[in-house]
Write a structure and sequence with these properties.
Elements lengths: L5 H6 L6 H4 L42 H14 L2 H19 L7 H11 L2 H15 L2 H12 L1 H27 L1 H13 L2
Helix pairs in contact: 3-6, 3-7, 4-5, 7-8
Length: 191
């Protein structure tokens, strides 16, 4: 499942940076498991030795073109296109459920979202964002991580964790809604 609200759906994109947050970035030691993939890494992507399956260096000079291709490969490995499609669909359904008056506009909203928020609409700016924050080697390492069993499991589990976390947050807010209303009322009455 994908998170229930569009802002949380955007957090699914944080999936791209998760290994660096867990210590799997370029300066970190290799992950505990060797990358395994049903689809091999493209030729020339990175130098991997028999002693260490973790990419230690690129086997080519990094250029903006090779860097961007590496980011696009990462997007493919993490299934970003389908994740975004599901997130956008969930977001739109949630908005319509919350405001049924939007139902007649659903097709217009879907066309708009497909044009500007689909992978085709955000791939290049999103790639530039990651190119600014991760070297090409780090991108290759992220891709290697997401090809590992743990990486594949992370791709599957993070959206579920975000959804469950959203439910926990929603329940906490509902549990303390009276307190929030009182706080709002006090703030509005303050001089």
């Amino acid at each position: 499942m994908i998170p229930r609200s569009f802002p949380r759906a955007a957090l699914a994109l944080a999936l791209l940076a998760l290994p660096s947050a867990t210590g799997c970035a370029a300066a970190s030691p290799p992950p505990p498991t060797a990358p395994s993939s049903t689809a091999p890494a493209p030729a020339g992507a990175a130098q991997v030795s028999a002693a260490s399956p973790w990419p230690q260096e690129l086997d080519h000079p990094s250029t903006p073109e090779t860097h961007r291709r590496a980011v696009y490969e990462l997007f493919d490995v993490i299934h970003l296109k389908s994740t975004l499609e599901q997130a956008l669909d969930t977001s739109l359904r949630t908005q319509i459920e919350a405001n049924p008056k939007l139902r007649p506009l659903e097709s217009v909203m879907r066309r708009f979202m497909a044009k500007y928020l689909s992978i085709d609409g955000i791939r290049d700016p999103l790639a530039s964002l990651y190119m600014d924050r991760f070297s090409e080697l780090e991108i290759v390492q992220l891709t290697a991580f997401y090809r590992t069993p743990l990486g594949k499991r992370t791709i599957d589990e993070v959206p579920k964790l975000l959804e469950e976390g959203g439910r926990i947050g929603k329940a906490k807010v509902q549990e303390h809604m009276d307190e929030l209303k009182d706080m709002i009322r006090q703030q509005l009455q303050a001089p």
